[in-house]
Design a protein that fits this description.
By secondary structure, this protein is an alpha/beta fold. The protein has helices at residues 17-26, 75-97, 113-124, 138-144, 147-154, and strands spanning 2-6, 31-38, 46-47, 71-73, 104-109, 128-132, 159-162. Helix 1 links the parallel strand 1 (2-6) and strand 2 (31-38). It is elongated.
Length: 167
């Protein structure tokens, strides 16, 4: 049996980890895949800070040219770094929560996480998608939507969804 565990880096998405660990305990031969979908729109290169205007510049016709900031990390390098950091984060989570298991890590880039989750589940031919939901309702649900809801609607596979505990 195969399971796809989705994480988005938030504390809420990690609330599914005890449930996923229990699933691994109940199904000893479970092949666990961990997926994080990153938004390419959120990645930008970084630049060094511009040089400050020198204090007490001479008056008159003299002009002082301030150097432009230099590129420190290109957007492509930023994507590679984020991919490495995300994979390392999934590895740390796996070592903490799934001792004895060797999950496979997947990092995908997409502006539509639900579509990407369903596509990855199909590509890996998993038996169940395991994810948490933010549990929004009312106006916040209307405005932000729900990735979990979209996955449930789009997927032909079972989706195990855990809502956050209500206080």
């Amino acid at each position: 049996m195969k399971a796809l565990l989705t994480l988005d880096g938030s504390q809420n998405s990690e609330s599914i980890l005890p449930t996923a660990r229990r699933l691994c305990e109940l199904i000893p031969d479970l092949e666990l895949h961990m997926l994080t979908v990153l938004d390419p729109k959120s990645v930008h290169g970084t630049r060094s800070e511009p040089v400050d205007d020198p204090k007490g510049a001479a008056a008159g016709t003299m002009s002082i040219r301030i150097p432009s900031p230099r590129v420190v990390e290109t957007p492509g390098e930023a994507e590679e770094r984020m991919q490495r950091e995300t994979t390392a984060s999934m590895g740390a989570i796996a070592r903490e929560w799934f001792t004895g298991e060797t999950p496979q890590y997947h990092v995908e880039w997409s502006r539509d996480p639900a579509k990407t989750i369903v596509s990855c589940a199909d590509k890996l031919d998993v038996d169940v998608i395991v994810m948490a939901t933010h549990g929004r309702s009312g106006l916040s649900h209307l405005l932000a939507g729900s990735v979990a809801e979209a996955v449930i609607r789009r997927s032909k596979r079972p989706v195990l969804v855990q809502c956050p505990a209500q206080s």
